[in-house]
Design brief:
Length: 90
């Protein structure tokens, strides 16, 4: 992970990702229970949903943290973006 130390220390974005992935997987489990009687396909589908949702949200959250980092010089990407926004070209 290339987050700055301050952003990387906060567990809350990751707790949220985990909670939402778990919730979505749980909904999938309940919904499949209406039409599928076997446990294995339900468990596999719920697992796939958990990984897909968790992966997508994690990717989004990490991108968001990186972009909104305001902790200064330890984030070279942000410095580059700020330079680009101010219109300095070589
Ligand atoms: Zn930061």
């Amino acid at each position: 992970m290339n987050l700055c130390p301050k952003c990387g220390r906060s567990p809350w974005p990751f707790v949220m990702v985990l909670a939402m992935a778990t919730f979505t997987a749980f909904i999938t489990w309940i919904t499949l229970g209406l039409s599928v009687d076997e446990t294995a396909p339900r468990a596999i589908a719920s697992g796939v949903v958990f990984l897909a949702v968790g992966g997508t949200l994690l990717h989004y959250v990490l991108g968001c943290l990186r972009r909104h980092c305001r902790h200064g010089k330890e984030n070279p990407l942000e410095a580059r973006l700020r330079r680009a926004a101010h219109g300095h070209h070589h």
